Amino acid sequence: MARSFVLTLSCPARTGIVQAVSSYLFQRGCDIREYQQFDDAVGDRVFLRTQVASDRDVDLDELSSGFEPVAADYEMDFSFFGDRPARVLVMASKAGHCLNDLIYRWRAGSLGADIAAVVSNHEDLRPMAEAADLPFLHVPVTQDNKPEAEARLLELVDEYGADLVVLARYMQILSDQTCKALYGRAINIHHSFLPGFKGARPYHQAYRRGVKLVGATAHYVTPDLDEGPIIEQEVIRIDHTYDPEALQTVGRDAEALALSRAVRWHCERRVLLNGDSTVVFR
């Protein structure tokens, strides 16, 4: 039951979509508080996000079931989301800048979600998690136990009721099977030098090439490594005075900013998948 909720949908472009949606909500005593729409002229599809309120408790399952005939008429992919904050499972390895930023925003109430637990393949970040009263779960990963470790990860997603998994500098490549199991609900962050500067010490490579921009990309996780639909990117201009260590510092800032925005927008149901891309209603 909820008194405020979000409806998101996409469908082939045609006339009557807005009228059909607004009429359905009006007939059920719902008031539209925020409405955003994007018409994709290239893909000939419409994307819509509307935030709705009611002066009484609304059964979202019943509302969704009643909306199905409307959705069928317009070939809509749709979802209703209640006002419960999304639960996030954060995964990290040794670098703590993204985890620290997410914890800060969560405790400040600006993340738009609740962090349920922290999972890591190392023990380094336990003090940071436990200082925030968050469960810290150490799941070691080796060449021999990787399938078991990923199975444990998926178990933890269910155990903690996680709506979203955030790879906050988690330095392990997930298997295709796990990526598919988490499709649309796992976000990764990487420095935007990929694929230009591959391998070890990318910031040293960038320094030698005299880069003028440092950035980061937050994207959904897919079996294609670092090629999932992009949610957010952050870019910071630099110059020749930045040595590799300074570049790393700027890069960490860019990663934390891009990742926190992507997490918040996803959890506020502002991100809709559009094939290999996304529509983000800010």
Automatic annotation (TrEMBL):
It is an enzyme of class 3 (hydrolase). GO terms for molecular function: formyltetrahydrofolate deformylase activity. InterPro entries: ACT-like_dom_sf, Formyl-FH4-Hydrolase_C, Formyl_transf_N, Formyl_transf_N_sf, PurU, PurU_ACT. It holds the Pfam family Formyl_trans_N. Its EC number is 3.5.1.10. Pathway: Purine metabolism; IMP biosynthesis via de novo pathway; formate from 10-formyl-5,6,7,8-tetrahydrofolate: step 1/1. Keywords: Hydrolase, One-carbon metabolism, Purine biosynthesis. The active site is at 226. HAMAP family: PurU. Belongs to the PurU family. This is Formyltetrahydrofolate deformylase. It comes from Nocardiopsis endophytica.
